[in-house]
Amino acid sequence: MASKRKAKLKKILSYTAFVGPALLFFLIIQIAPFFMGVYYSFTSWNGVSAAVEWVGFDNYIKIFTDDQNFYNSFLFTTKFMFAAVIISNVTGFGLALILNTALKTRNILRTVFFIPNVIGGLLLGFIWQFIFVKGFASIGDLTGLPFFQQPWLGTEDTAFWGIVIVFAWQISGYMMVIYIAALQGVDNSLLEAAKIDGASYLKVLTRIIIPLILPAFTICFFLTISMAFKIFDLNISLTGGGPFNSTESVAINIYQEAFTNNRYGLGTAKSILFFIVVVIFTTCQVMFTKKKEVEA
To answer: How many Å apart are CA 68 and CA 63, to the nearest integer?
Structure first.
């Protein structure tokens, strides 16, 4: 009996030794700041002074009744999310289909397409800012093509699509890797049997391949939705929210509210609302795609 207790205690201690530090850091870095943020969202704290005044739901009421900038930034972020998610996943899946074939250079190409994902968003934004402003202008002068002569970061519409292009360029390689891993798990005998039966490539793709790799779509949609909603560094380095705040994401709006305007309580209230919205969107997406997996 005593030996069993010692073995059980030893097992608990070994689990604690491995899991304990990670759990402790998670509580300190993630959970504790989150609940502190919830508390500060009900205050008028400026983020600097020691005085913290409780204001209840005043911050939330102000957001819903008297904050047009936050509303505009939320509309921009939502519109950006839908465009970026569709383009990133279509591009990533297309690259995965191409590079899953027997190409001699497929390993090199996989590396090339994945490299943008490891470049920091700030650096990437400044690089593409130079490309849009200087590179495209030079190509436009040489070729006379209207596509390159547009003020890509100078108008609301072109700046929006400029951010979408750079985001998709950065993240598509990451999605490609996930889709390739899923495609390699598809049983080739099923594909060969379908081809023998006379099925076209489109039917094989839509009736066999896509239904079998729906879990990969669930993961990729979840990642791209959350990344697109939380876009900050790429946005601030590429356009800074301009022109005239037309491309200001919610993350930039929260940052400016808390750290530029020194209204930490109001900024935290916005972040809590933003967190709820992202949770709702991602949860609905996962539930929907999971249901499709079961149906397939």
So the answer is: 8
